[in-house]
Amino acid sequence: MVKEIKRDYYLEQLINREGNGLIKIVTGIRRCGKSYLLRTLFKNHLLENGVDEKHIIEMAFDLFDNIEYRDPKIFYPWAKEQLQDTEKYYFLLDEVQLLDEFVSVLNGLADKKNCDVFVTGSNAKFLSRDIATEFGGRGDEVHMYPLSFSEFMSCYDGNKYDGWNEYITYGG
After folding, report:
1. Which of 82-86, 114-118, 149-153 has the lowest mean pLDDT?
2. How does DSSP assign 22-76, residue by residue?
3. Rounded to whole angstroms, how far apart are CA atoms 94 and 115?
4. Kind of pairing, strands 89-94 and 115-121?
5. How far apart (Å, rounded) are the C-alpha atoms in residues 17 and 13?
6. Is the distance from CB of 59 to CB of 82 less than 8 angstroms?
């Protein structure tokens, strides 16, 4: 049985930022759980709170199947086509730094009254302190870290001493 690792601290940060009119930007080092937070935990939160699955638009720019969408002239028209009514739409965009002209594209989506935009990124540009200013004051950053020891232990089968040894050996 696969155990779900709770990242409640980060999930609450996203939940508290819903509908604030800004682009929510999840940053952090590679493999710290940004994609899992956005595309699993946050998406499940939306679904559990009555958001229609058709109103959750996902794109993982790092997947080969989506490589054509890295072109803003393909992605942006596709994104606008997803908007079928005036209800709220949630865009969950993973590894958005791979999208050419991503700042302009995201600002364009965020400018629409019925769009709430959440993105992840992990390259040097996204890890810099100035990522929120990159969006002309329209970004709201959530910086994520690897698992804390308590998060690690929430899914570890064993005692805290063995868990500590594994945690310091392999990290969070």
Report:
1. 149-153
2. SEEEEE-STTSSHHHIIIIIIHHHHHHTT--GGGEEEEETTSGGGGGGGSHHHHH
3. 16
4. parallel
5. 6
6. no
Q: What is the mean pLDDT of residues 39-68?
A: 97
* Residue matched to tokens 């500590």: 164
Question: Is 165's pLDDT higher than 90?
Answer: no
User: Within 13 Å and on the Cβ side, how many CA atoms surround 58?
Assistant: 16
Straight-line distance from the first to the last Cα atom of the chain, in angstroms, rounded to the nearest whole number:
20
d(CA 100, CA 45): 29
pTM of this prediction?
0.88
Whose tokens are 């810099």? That residue is: 128
CA torsion sign for 56, 144, 62, 22 is positive
Q: What is the distance between the alpha carbons of residues 119 and 26, in angstroms, rounded to a whole number?
A: 6
CATH 1.10.1610.10 fits 8-146, yes or no: no
The size of the chain, in residues, is 172
Residue 37 DSSP label: I
